[in-house]
Sequence to fold (696 residues):
Amino acid sequence: MSRKDLLRLFEPERVAVVGATPREGSVGRGVMENLRSFDGDVVGVNPKHDDVLGFPCYDDIPSVPGSVDLAVVAVPAESAVDVVDSLGERGVKNVVVLTAGFSESGGGGAERETALAEAAERHSVRLVGPNSLGVTSTPSSLNATFGSASPREGNVSFMSQSGAFITAAVDWANDARMGFRHIVSLGNKSVLDETEFAEAWGEDDGTAVIVGYLEGVEDGGRFVRVLRRVTRETPVVLVKSGRTDEGARAVSSHTGTLAGSDRAYETALRKAGVIRADDVEELFDFARALDALSLPEGDGVAVVTNAGGPGVMATDAVGDTSLSLADLTDGTYEALDGALPDAASVYNPVDILGDAPPERFADAVEAVADDPGVSACLVIACPTTTFDFDDLAETLVGTDVEIPLVASLMGGEATREARDVLSESDIPTYFDPARAVRSLEAVADYRRAKRRRTGEVRDFDVNRQKARRILETARDDGRLGVEATPLLEAYGIPTPEGDVVGSPNEAVQVAEGIDGDVVMKIVSPDILHKSDIGGVRVGVTQDDVRDVYEDLVSRARSYQPDADVLGVQVQETVEVDDGVETIVGFSRDPQFGPLVVFGLGGIFVEVFEDTSFGIAPVTDTEAREMVDGIDASPLLHGARGSQPVDTEAVVETVERVSALASDFPSILELDINPLVASADGVSAVDLRLTVDKEEL
Ligand code: ADP
Ligand code: MG
Fold:
């Protein structure tokens, strides 16, 4: 089924409603009422009627004459599978199942949904739902939903996992004069899901912006891959509610606790180039801005206001975003000086004073728009006696500016007309200056996402066989600790010299092979944080090795008598003082797969939580962004006179850990903490992982 074909769902010429009925309050009637405005043909299927709301009605699917491009199914759940089967047999390829009573409810609903999907599969039917509100397509006034509101025509295509939300959103959007192109209520997504619609709309010339309200993503990996392609051409804005069950997650490692499902979602959206909205208001604010505005060239914003207070509000809002208030050039100051009264402030935010007539707004906007450091402009207008909003709107529409322009009209009913006039001319309006600023940020974010180089997933020379053998040695509970250090070696990640030993004599032998003082640690998968029980000893001289061995083992025994003590690790001392302790690891998200983490490491990792994330496979570019993305990254680049660390080696370690995550789905979680990074390279000093032995 190709994507272009999926668009046919929205372009039918003849629609059949199976379960059409004149009964008040029924779904079947609701759809028929909404279909009255459809430009094409409508027929009903219901043996009890010959006519429903003036449309012809047939006894069953085979008796419908002519072609049917779209069927809407509003029959009881028990007969829905048979209906889809007979629609398939008749060659109907586009079917929307409104009927509820499937996987969202108990009592055999899940089995029924499987049967429904199989029926669709058998006949290659593009099936929306079940439990869907329906689909709409404004170019042909198609409203095949049982919702109460009909959308205006526009360029935004909208998908939603909640049908009720569509009804609410359309009503709101009508009030805001915002239009839609296609709308689909995804329902239970038994066949078609968000990724398929995003892909289809990405190829639809009439769709300028894709927006979605999701509660979850069906196949995270596919979603990220496809959306990355779509967002190169078409902006996608999503809002997500609901979280996966945190309790079900294994949190035996740092990485697991740091991750959380929202992190995975956030990271996946960034990788896919999708703009995330925090709430429903933002979803449509962003959609309108992305639809109306051209992409700004930079992040500098100019604010033109007739009141000081809202100018300060806008300044604060800019400070909360990735945008900045542009520093204006001398030429711009001169132009503003010439155009504005003496008392006005020519500095950004440009305060044109409370007595400003519309022309003064226009002069100031045109002056700042010519400034090379200004990539977008926000006009704030508070009601005064010297202008009315309608005149202001007309004047702003007449200005000659190339950059994105948004307006904050700080009033209610008085701004009604002005809002419509400005929206018509692609100048989005908002009440709150902060909302206007965030919308400008969304457009700037999209510019970045669109142009962002994804980078490459580098192919490293690794020893998978060796890695597998080591993983097989995991205990029944799947835990492995520093005894699995050779796993890192197999993946080309540098580790300190040393070994795990089972006796004081062996410890002495290993220590003798290492230059200088050694580090000794207890090795037991039952002891998660070795240093908490005094299980890590640094600066051990050759003479003390034997005693320290005995001491470590007895500490472990007294801490936890039944602990499984595998021995003691004798390790070369890594110069921690000259380096930075970092953490590199991954956990697995149920929807998006391996979530790779990089951060400030050592024993304070959970205190600072200074981390960045990537979804495996992490590209070279993404790994670098992760390393540069933590707050403490100046430390890596040599803050306060210290030597910069070998960040290339750190970046490469992130990529190699990502490769390990992709190659071995059996590794549920892994963390290297610390990975000591210094000017000489990196060294993985500590390791912990959990393996699902069944998966090996
Ligand atoms: P755990 O995390 O279980 O407490 P680690 O092996 O991470 O045990 O050791 C704790 C800390 O001890 C490290 O963060 C590091 O500061 C220090 N350390 C451990 N091994 C070495 C080593 N080989 N060289 C230098 N310092 C080390
Ligand atoms: Mg550690």
